[in-house]
Every structure is written in structure tokens, then in C-alpha cells.
Amino acid sequence: MRNLLITGGCGFIGSNFVNYWATRYPTDKIVILDALTYAGNKANIATALTQKNVEFIHGNICDSSLLNDIFLKFNIDTVVHFAAESHVDRSITEPDAFIKTNIIGTHNLLMASKQYWFDNNVKKHHFHHISTDEVYGSLTSSELPFKETNQYQPNSPYAASKASSDHLVRSYFETFGLNTTISNCSNNYGAFHYPEKLIPLTITNILNNKAIPIYGDGKQIRDWLWVEDHCRGIESILNKGTYGEVYNIGGNNEWTNIDIVNLICKKMNFQFSKNQALIDKYSNAISVHNNQSEQLISFVHDRLGHDRRYAIDASKIEKTLNFKPSINFEDGLDKTILWYLNNPDWWTDIV
């Protein structure tokens, strides 16, 4: 039995992990800490919160006093750290928030963990830090995917802040002997994905008959990972990972942005062509009614410092922890589209 502190547990990946863990480990105590900034939504964990062993605290990882109180009150022995500012576009216009949350907040959490675990001789403890493939920089089309040993070369304030937090976590293992692990994941997709990101933005813009903006030529390449598979990967690290190690979690699934958007348009056209109820439900989605949602695609000026390609080499976690993605991309995308079609109350107010 564990006593987990899950930071950022109302965000996209964090909430999926909360729901996954609460279902799989009903005897574990789960404490969710979230500041409920724009992308955090308590409704994401509504089902988990019906369990007696799950508790929500509205607060910020930059509040050191609150962190110390949480560790003491709940005897926390495991931290799964999702809390972060994560949108690259926002990091370009508002970098201060990324420095504060991703670097200072992570350091506050490390200090609180170290103080409680060492002062109370909690030998069986684990600090797991969720990071991103963006810390490695950008790849050309011919370069091999990122390994855990790749040099860090962050190209945006977001990526730089995550790289900094990774280094802090590593330092607490090397210097103090804190039991830490880090995972660097590729792009996630699935339920509860905030509609500023490519896949949910494309889906919701089609349903609102709005232009689908594509940066530059749309040929930027990303590796896509089903969010529930990401949760399984974290589970593998928490249960079998080696302290001090870094694990890349990827989907082995590279797509250009424009190809993904075209695929979503095709799948949305198909959904509406076979279901009159969708046409009635989404009466303003004129383009997809006419089987022409791709006409909404609009190429816009590329963003500053836009990385061309990310790709994850996940062979380490596959070989050492026996983890592999369980679902192929098109099936996962079908599930994602159906989730947004069936949950307009979740995203309508957001967009």
C-alpha cells in the first residue's frame, strides 16, 4: 500500500493517471494537488473522487508550507509529479510562469520530499518526475530517435524549464540519495486533452466549423502516445524501475502534423456520414455535414523556434521493464474522437 501525492492531477495526463491508479490500486491513498489553472479541471477526476481513499487539495507546488503539511498529514511515500506549465506557445509569450512553476515549484517539491523522508527515515520512498521529449531539442528527418543519453538541447522556454527540472531531480538523487526516477514522454493524446493542443483543437474546431490552424507547412513530425499507455509506462517505473534512472516513454508512432489533421478530418467525415444524430447534435458543423471538414484547414505563420521533429527511442523501458504501447494510433484516435463527440459538456465551455 502506498500513500501517493500526485501533483497536477487535474490536468490532461495527470487526471488520466489518477483515474487509472484509483481503479488499479483501490487500497492506495491518493492525494491530488492541483492549482486549477486554466488547463486544470476538477471534473476530470470526478469518478476517482467518489472513492474514500482519494482526496483533492487545491493548492500550488510553489507553496512550500502547504507541501510540508501534506507530507506530514498523509505520510506521503510516493510522489508522481505532473504539475507543470506545458504549452509551448504560452511559454513564448509568458515565460515567467514556466520558470516559476516548472523550476521553482519542482525544487520546492524535492525539498519537501527530502525533508519529510529523511527526517522520518522513510526508506521506501519514490519521487517520480514526468518530463518531455522536448528537452532533447529537435531532430532532422534522418537522425535516430532520442535516447535517454542524448544531450539536452531545449529550444523553447517550456523545454528549457523542463530540462532544468530534470537536472534538479537528478541532482537530488546524486547528491542526497533521494530515490528518484524521470520519464521523458512523447506527445500524448486521449480523453481530457485541453483543446489548445493539435488533436483536440482539430476535433473541436471541426465541430464548431472553425478554421484549423496549421503552423508553417505542417510537416513537423511528432511521436504520439496514447495517454493510457503513458499511465501504464509510469506504473511500470513505479513498480519495477531503478532509482536514478531515466526512461523514455514513446509510442513508436511518428506522424506529421498535417497528416494527423487530414486523418482526423477523414475520420470525422466518416462519423457524420453514418450518424444522422451527430448532424442533429452538432448543427453548426457545416463542413463535416458535407463530408468536407478538410476545407477548414488553414496554414498560418510558423511559431518562433518551432522544433521540426521529435522521436522517442523507447527500447530501454521495453527491454528493462517489459513495457510497450498497447494500442495503435488509428484505434486510439478513434477512441479520442468518440470521447469528444460524446462529451461536449466538457469542452464546450473551454473553447
From TrEMBL:
Cofactor section: NAD(+)
Catalytically driven reaction(s): dTDP-alpha-D-glucose = dTDP-4-dehydro-6-deoxy-alpha-D-glucose + H2O
EC number: 4.2.1.46
Domain NAD(P)-binding, first and last residues per copy: 5-335
GO MF annotation: an example: dTDP-glucose 4,6-dehydratase activity
Uppermost EC category: lyase
One Pfam family, short name: GDP_Man_Dehyd
Record-linked InterPro entries: dTDP_Gluc_deHydtase (IPR005888), NAD(P)-bd_dom (IPR016040), NAD(P)-bd_dom_sf (IPR036291)
Protein keywords: Lyase, NAD
Family the UniProt entry places it in: Belongs to the NAD(P)-dependent epimerase/dehydratase family. dTDP-glucose dehydratase subfamily.
Protein name according to UniProt: dTDP-glucose 4,6-dehydratase
Native source organism of the sequence: Psychrosphaera aquimarina
Higher taxonomy: Bacteria, Pseudomonadati, Pseudomonadota, Gammaproteobacteria, Alteromonadales
